[in-house]
Amino acid sequence: MTQKGRLVIISGPSGSGKSTVLQKLFQNSEVPLMLSVSATTRPPRPGEKEGRDYYFLSDEEFQSRRNAGEFLECKEVFGRGYWYGTLREAVSTGLNEGKWVILEIDVQGALAVLRDQPEAITIFVHPGSMAELEKRLRNRGTESEEAIQRRLNVAAEELSLRHHYTHEVINQEIKTTVQHLCQLLTQYHGETIPCSKN
Ligand code: 5GP
């Protein structure tokens, strides 16, 4: 991949608040960010939109695009037959346009991308504690007890791998986390513009 932009990988357990943090980061950062929209075979949650949150694909379509080598990385997450993947073309187009392409992917996906793109900036969003994570997952009210338990198990595994990331932020207060990430990216970008809007 010829690159003018930079790849930024953001991971964190489901319920760590990383989606909200990312949404606000996009509103506040002075760096030209672009979110890579992943493809998945999981059904949309209430409020999720095709092409904005994910490309929701059938199993057949996902596997045929996988066989065609269209994914930079892809994997089955949560062991339930739901696949997630990063579309190669969207990422390289963004990088070639000078965008800082954000990948919001799980730890295994991040490690796979890092093997190919070791210069990627990696950030792990930590929920603070497992108890806090459980509270957030339950407050969402969108998932069964079984799904919550599965996500908690995956979260524990992800937390144990966070040392692979260059940066770790503990997301206790969204505003502070966003400011921290803005500053971090601005620093990498070599600018001194403060991140003041919140
Ligand atoms: P959710 O179902 O809550 O949207 O996402 C579940 C998990 O899948 C999250 O940890 C998220 O980071 C991960 N994920 C989302 N997109 C991708 C992707 O393209 N690749 C990989 N490896 N993981 C992804």
Topology:
Elements: E1 6-11, H1 18-28, E2 33-35, E3 39-40, E4 55-56, H2 59-67, E5 71-77, E6 82-87, H3 88-96, E7 100-104, H4 107-116, E8 121-126, H5 130-140, H6 145-159, E9 167-170, H7 174-189
Parallel strand pairs: 1-7, 1-8, 2-7, 3-4, 8-9
Antiparallel strand pairs: 3-6, 5-6
Helix pairs in contact: 1-7, 5-6
The structure holds guanosine-5'-monophosphate (5GP).
Guanosine-5'-monophosphate binds at residues 11, 14, 38, 42, 73, 75, 77, 84-86, 104-106, 108-109.
How would you characterize this protein structure?
41% of the residues lie in helices and 21% in strands. It has 198 residues and is α/β, with parallel strands linked by helices. It has a single domain, classed as P-loop containing nucleotide triphosphate hydrolases (Rossmann fold, 3-Layer(aba) Sandwich). The chain starts with 5 loop residues before the first strand and ends in a 9-residue tail after the last helix. Guanosine-5'-monophosphate (5GP) binds next to strand 5, strand 6 and helix 4.
- Class by SSE composition: alpha/beta
CATH architecture: 3-Layer(aba) Sandwich
Largest sheet composition: 5 strands, parallel
Q: What count of helical segments does DSSP give?
A: 7
End-to-end Cα distance: 34 Å
Q: What coarse outline follows from CA principal-axis ratios?
A: globular
- CATH class equals Alpha Beta
CATH superfamily: P-loop containing nucleotide triphosphate hydrolases
Helix content: 40-55%
Q: Which spans of ≥5 residues are poorly predicted at pLDDT below 50?
A: none
Number of domains: 1
H/E element order: EHEEEHEEHEHEHHEH
Q: Quick check: average pLDDT? A: 91
Reported by name, the CATH topology is Rossmann fold
Count of β-strands? 9
